[in-house]
Design a protein that fits this description.
The complex is a heterodimer of chains A (112) and B (115). Chain A is an all-beta fold and 112 residues long. Chain A is built from no helices and eleven strands. In chain A, the strands form two sheets. In chain A, strands 2, 4, 5, 9, 10 and 11 form a six-stranded mixed beta sheet that branches. In chain B, a hairpin with a 5-residue loop joins strand 5 (44-51) and strand 6. The chains are: A mainly beta (112), B mainly beta (115).
Chain lengths: 112, 115
């Protein structure tokens, strides 16, 4: 079964608005990571949050993790047209080493 | 930062031919590399874990004879799609972990189109 499920599948907002994407997972994790993928390109690592952390910030990004609900959220504040991309959460299970399991992704479109 | 290079970035081939995709860690050593497959508008699905000096570990449902993986050095892993068919057309992405931090670095991907 897919470890990470994300919602919404697609999100369209206006520049300047905030974008929130959610991710749920099923098993215990070591950490959860968020990645960005521009169309037809590789993945870019955005932020990592460990299982003992609840919130983390990086620039305009804010990630939360609720291990009791097995869920995480990614908030992008003051969005820009250049933020248009697919965003994936990925979980690292405690016994999986470096192996990551990816969620289905959220396609974010920021309209200028 | 660490860089993973993937080559070719795109390839078009005829049905029945074999295609090799290379994944290189440019400024760090990687005893393990991961190969993913991604269909349009879908997520990344892990195909196999490439292990330097030993056999790759394949995910359930992935044909090891179809997708040959070789990890002959600490900086290079190759994926060969043998006897390719149109249904093998996909975006293939590799990644390698930086052991010091555990962070995964991804190649830019290789788009395979089988005619």
């Amino acid at each position: 079964s897919q470890q990470g499920e994300e919602d919404p599948q697609a999100l369209s907002i206006q520049e300047g608005e905030n974008a929130t994407m959610n991710c749920s997972y099923k098993t215990s994790i070591n950490n959860l990571q968020w990645y960005r993928q521009n169309s037809g390109r590789g993945l870019v690592h955005l932020i990592l949050i460990r299982s003992n952390e609840r919130e983390k910030h990086s620039g305009r990004l804010r990630v939360t993790l609720d291990t009791s609900k097995k869920s995480s959220s990614l908030l992008i504040t003051a969005s820009r047209a250049a933020d248009t991309a697919s965003y994936f959460c990925a979980t690292r299970v405690e016994t999986s080493g470096s192996r990551l399991t990816f969620g289905e992704g959220t396609q974010l479109t920021v309209n200028p | 930062g660490a860089v993973v290079s993937q080559h070719p970035s795109w390839v078009i081939c005829k049905s029945g031919t074999s295609v090799k995709i290379e994944c290189r860690s440019l400024d760090f050593q990687a005893t393990t590399m991961f190969w993913y497959r991604q269909f349009p508008k879908q997520s990344l699905m892990l195909m196999a874990t490439s292990n330097e000096g030993s056999k790759a570990t394949y995910e359930q449902g992935v044909e090891k004879d179809k997708f040959l993986i070789n990890h002959a050095s600490l900086t290079l892993s190759t994926l060969t799609v043998t006897s390719a068919h149109p249904e093998d057309s996909s975006f293939y992405i590799c990644s390698a972990p930086l052991l010091a931090t555990g962070e995964l670095f991804f190649g830019e991907g290789s788009r395979l189109t089988v005619l």
